[in-house]
Amino acid sequence: ALLLIVLFLALYKPYGIINFDELEGRDVLIAEREGAANCMTTFKLKEGNKFTERSFCFGPSEIKGHYRWVNDTLFFEDVEPGLFYEFALVKRSSLSSFHLVRYKSMSDTTGHELWITKNELEK
User: Burial, 6: exposed, middle or buried (Cβ in 10 Å; 0-12, 13-18, 19+)?
Assistant: First the structure.
């Protein structure tokens, strides 16, 4: 009976019974990018000015902190300096496509670009 319950739950809820991502709050912005060797970076802004970056490349990593939204710029706070980006810009690349470009410092000229898949910042 226990084995049948475990098999049923595995089929019914394959990602787990509790979705911890929903407990952190509603997603306001989601940006992601797939890199070399199938590495995936997912960046989420949550309600309450919180952010989470999850990266899966030869093992999972996660960085959490707070952000401040000013015009079209995000400033990251409560993150150890040098380990994460200092700020990010929301840029329009075409009529319907937006990108989030993150910069390590004010002297960074290239940035790291992520594609925005969900944007509810303006609402």
Answer: exposed
User: 50 - beta bridge partners?
Assistant: 46, 66
- Residues in CB range of 37: below 8 A, 6 or more apart: 57, 58
Decide: 93 and 79 in contact? Cβ < 8 Å: no
Q: Categorize the per-residue pLDDT at 108 as very low, low, confident or very high, splitting at 50, 70 and 90.
A: confident
- Give me the sign of the Cα torsion angle 110, 40, 115, 65: negative
| Element containing residue 18 per DSSP (H, E) | none
Which residues, 6+ apart, have CB-to-CB distance to 86 below 8 Å?
Answer: 75, 76, 103, 104, 105, 106
Q: For residues 92 and 111, give the distance between their C-alpha atoms in angstroms, rounded to a whole number.
A: 15
* Segment 9-31, tens digit of pLDDT: 999 988 888 888 888 889 999 99
pTM of the model: 0.79
